[in-house]
Amino acid sequence: MSSIKFGIFRSTILLVAVVTIFYNDSSKAINNYFQLSQASSIENLQQIIGKDAQVEKVAEGFKFTEGPVWHPEGFLLFSDIPENTIYQWQSNQEVKVFRRPSGNANGNTLDLQGRLITGEHSNRRVSRTEKDGKIITLVDKYNGKRLNSPNDLVVKSDGSIYFTDPPYGIKSEQEELGFYGVYRISPDGKLILLVDDFVRPNGIALSPDETKLYVNDSEKGHIRIFDVKSDGTLENGKIFAELKDRNKAGVPDGMKVDLQGNVYSTGPGGVWVFSPSGKLLGIIAVPEKVANLAWGNDDYKTLYLTASKSLYKITLTVTGVRPGGIR
Fold first, then answer.
1. Are 108 and 79 in contact (CB under 8 A)?
2. Residue closest to 199 by CA, chosen among 183, 173, 222
3. Residue 45 phi, psi dihedral angles, 5° rounding
4. How big is the CA angle at 305 (ends 205 and 219), to the nearest 5 degrees?
């Protein structure tokens, strides 16, 4: 880990000459930081990003970053999967090791009590870190068979935990279930399989009113949306949006929403921003392939991006949904 720059690091990526804005007339292009889907969406996206928004690199030198979550005590936690570590980042301070080994942690979120909930690759479980630092297993089996590789998670305001379970990080001969599902851990600890027909379920997020659940399928290159029933189960699944661009690196992976219901998903070239109806508002370009993202800072208007070997941030005008089911 000597390659990690633990000192205070700051690199601002200016808004010019990073990507190109394409309008309906494709012959007209200007250098700027944001790629927009069509002319009519420019105003909406600009309202989200503001005229002075910029992406800033705040740390680098990692192997593969994932699972960012903002802690209300004023710091960001994020995983480095190959390094088997969860790090703690705080402005104007050196990066610290929060937990090592981490079970090759991937996704992280907080529950209603502010405890860390983690999807662990190598331990093949969803864990909870207690206030005293003790780590307990919430679930690691379904119907007596080991989970694949719990990936990303979101907590509902009733305390239930939704998570995805692709096979990343394990060999095919280690798989016991035979499918890659989306699950719900009920407030009383019961594990419920919700959907089992994903190819590679990954990022997961709830709408602000918790009536919709979004799930990325990294292999299919799309986001699916489900209605959340009163008992916490799902119905009426359909495609919400597709995120495909063969010319740029990245897949639908991590995902978050803001309080206005806009959906932010990693994808080819950066972070794809959709309206609640599934209209592409634009793409926030990032120099590295982005795996996940999280709202942070006191006002939850800063979007932190875990991108391959680095950590970035960008401050927007909108407010994100806080982790832990607290709206």
1. yes
2. 222
3. -65, -40
4. 55
Find the angle CA(23)-CA(305)-CA(160) to the nearest 5 degrees. Answer: 110
pTM above 0.85, yes or no: yes
DSSP 258: B
Q: Cβ neighbours of residue 185 under 8 Å, at least 6 residues apart? A: 126, 138, 139, 160, 161, 162, 163, 191, 192
Of 112, 134, 65, residue with least CA distance to 311 = 65
CA distances to 9, 66, 243, 311 from 305, rounded to whole Å, are: 15, 9, 18, 6
**Average pLDDT per run of 10 along the chain, which is 327 residues long?**
44 36 29 36 69 92 98 97 98 96 98 97 97 96 98 97 96 96 97 97 97 97 98 98 93 96 96 94 94 97 97 96 77
DSSP classification of residue 321:
P
- State the DSSP H helix or E strand holding residue 47, giving kind and residue range, or none if neither: helix 42-49
Tokens standing for residue 57: 């690199």
The residues, any chain, with a CB within 8 Å of residue 162's CB and separated by 6 or more, are 153, 154, 155, 156, 182, 183, 184, 185, 194, 204, 206, 213
Question: CA-CA distance, 149 to 133, in Å (whole number)?
Answer: 23
Three-state secondary structure call for residue 41: helix
